[in-house]
Design brief:
Structural class: mainly alpha
Strand content: under 5%
Helix content: over 70%
Shape: elongated
Largest sheet: none
Distance between the termini: 92 Å
Oligomer: single chain
Number of strands: 0
């Protein structure tokens, strides 16, 4: 592989590329378009490149799906706030009041559900005794 780069180095230096750009710079600067390549690819080589591309796309799709699943799991672990953090005492007080209202409503619903279930289970016990 190094022989190819050493072979092509004088050409790139002659067209104005510096030594540092060629060896340490962006590798896409030395990639030539397909029309400029000396040896055209054979059909088998083109098929092999296409097969590698398909495998790469499949791997990238798999990686993207794994990333999305990890992101969803992280969102479940760490609750993301819908509102920004309060900056003033007024905003803090408003948020506290809203939270207390929500908790009060949740407590009321829990108690209602508990008593409903208790009443149903008690009614079933008395039905069985009769």
């Amino acid at each position: 592989m190094t022989e190819v780069f050493e072979h092509d180095e004088p050409f790139y230096l002659s067209i104005g590329m510096t030594y540092e750009q060629y060896w340490y710079g962006d590798p896409w600067l030395v990639v030539s378009p397909p029309s400029c390549r000396k040896n055209a690819l054979t059909q088998a080589q083109r098929n092999a490149v296409a097969a590698r591309y398909v495998l790469l796309r499949g791997n990238l799709r798999c990686i993207a799906l794994c990333f999305i699943r990890m992101q969803n799991a992280a969102q479940r672990l760490f609750r993301i706030r819908e509102k920004p953090y309060p900056l003033t005492d007024e905003q803090t007080a408003e948020e506290r009041e809203e939270r207390e209202e929500r908790e009060g409503e949740n407590d009321r619903l829990r108690a209602e559900l508990f008593f409903k279930n208790w009443a149903e289970s008690t009614a079933k016990r008395f039905e069985k005794k009769e």
